[in-house]
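R.M. (postdoc): so does anyone remember the format we settled on? I'll just put the structure tokens first.
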């Protein structure tokens, strides 16, 4: 088997494997995220560096204003920049001027 044939075989194999994984998913089979990402998308989930993530969370805690956990504080900050739905049409019309 030459290089192009190996590539075609590998590609076809991954497509078939993905189709089978999709059938499993549609059949209600519960999959771990790592398995699902590999089977369906040929993507591998990197191992998390917990120490690095903890440092980044500490940085966020120092930067985000307000009280409560990070998710609450982030949501609160985003709400300040969210356009209310009842004003959306007016803002879109003004943006066309």
């Amino acid at each position: 088997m030459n290089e192009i044939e190996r590539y075609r075989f590998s590609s076809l194999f991954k497509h078939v494997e993905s189709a089978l994984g999709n059938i499993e998913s549609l059949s209600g089979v519960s999959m771990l995220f790592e398995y699902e990402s590999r089977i369906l998308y040929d993507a591998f989930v990197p191992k998390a560096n917990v120490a690095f993530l903890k440092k980044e969370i500490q940085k966020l805690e120092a930067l985000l204003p307000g009280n409560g956990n990070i998710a609450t504080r982030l949501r609160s900050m985003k709400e300040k920049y969210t356009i209310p739905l009842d004003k959306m049409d007016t803002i879109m019309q003004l943006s066309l001027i």
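R.M.: ...and that's the designed sequence above, right after the tokens. Also worth knowing: The mean pLDDT is 91. The chain has five helices and no strands.
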